[in-house]
Amino acid sequence: MGFHSKPTTFVSHVNIKVEDLQRSLQYYQEVIGFDILEKTSSTAKLTTDGKTSILSLEQPENVIPKQGRTTGLYHFALLLPEKRDLANIVVHLVNKGIRFGSSDHLVSEALYLHDPDGNEIEIYIDRDPSEWKWNEGEVAMAVDPLDFDRLLKNTEPGNAWKGLPEGTIMGHIHLHVSELIKTEEFYVKGLGFDVVNRFGAQALFLSTGKYHHHIGVNTWNGVGAPKPPENSVGMESFTLILPSEEAIKETIDNLQNIGVSATEEAGRLITYDPSGNRIELVV
C-alpha cells in the first residue's frame, strides 16, 4: 500500500463525534470489527493491529444529532488489504442483517453503510493500479453496480468473521464543502495535492503520488452550506501525514501564501480548510 506511506501525503486518522459512546463502541466493534486501543469516559481510540489508531470516537458535552445540509464529513473510507477481506465482510454484514450500499468505482470496489449517528463509512479494496485508466492527469472513476457474484468467489469457506484485518488503514476521506474554488486552492496550493478527477462542477478528487484519491470534496449539501455546531455529531478532525519536517515547513509557508494559517492547539499543528473542516498536520 505504497500510496499511504512516505513520500506521499495521506490521511491516516479520522476523529468523529457521536451521541452515545457506548452505543457507538458496540457498533464499531461488533459490526465494523474494530478493537479498542484506549478508552476514557467520553473518548475511544480504535485499532485493527493493537498498536495504531486509525479512528477515534468522542462524545462532546451537550452533544446534538448530526445536522443536515452542513459542511463536514461525507464519509471516511477504510481500505482493506485483500479482495477476500471485502468478500468476508459482505458475508458478515448479511449474516448480521445490516443494510449497506455498494459500488464499483473502476479503481476500487466499495461498500457503504452508516453508524448509529448517521456518520457514513466506506469499506473498500483497490483494484491493481495497473488497471486504473488515466487521461491527461485525470483518473477514470464511475459509480457502477458491484458484481457480488464475482466478489463472493473470494470468500474463504469455513472462515468465521474475525473483525477487520490487521492491515486495514484509513484509505481516504470525503468531505462536504461550501464551495470549490477556494477549496481547490487550499488543497492544491496550500497542502500540495493534485486534482485527479473532476466530477462535473460539484466534486473534486485529490491525491498525491498518483493515487485515485486521498481526499474527495463536494458541494452536494449546497453551495454556501454552513459549518455545523461544534457539539453536533460529525467529524472533529482528520490527520494528514506529511513526509518530513521540511514538508511541514513548506506547507505552512504555502498556506500563509494563500492567506491561511496553521497554528498549534494543545500540542497539535492545526489548520482549517475554507469550509471549516479541521485538519491536523503531522510527520
Explain what you see.
The mean pLDDT is 96. The protein has an eight-stranded mixed β-sheet with strand order 2-3-4-1-15-18-17-16, with helices on one face. Strands 6-7-8-5-11-14-13-12 form an eight-stranded mixed β-sheet. The chain is an alpha+beta fold and 283 residues long. It has a single domain, classed as Roll (2,3-Dihydroxybiphenyl 1,2-Dioxygenase, domain 1). The two termini are 18 Å apart. It has five helices and 18 strands. It holds the Pfam family Glyoxalase. Residues 10-126, 169-283 form the VOC domain. It comes from Virgibacillus sediminis.
Concise overview:
The protein has helices spanning 21-32, 83-95, 148-151, 181-190, 245-257, and strands spanning 10-17, 35-39, 43-47, 53-58, 72-79, 101-104, 108-114, 120-126, 134-135, 138-139, 169-176, 194-199, 203-207, 215-218, 234-241, 263-265, 268-272, 278-282. With 283 residues, it is of the alpha+beta class.
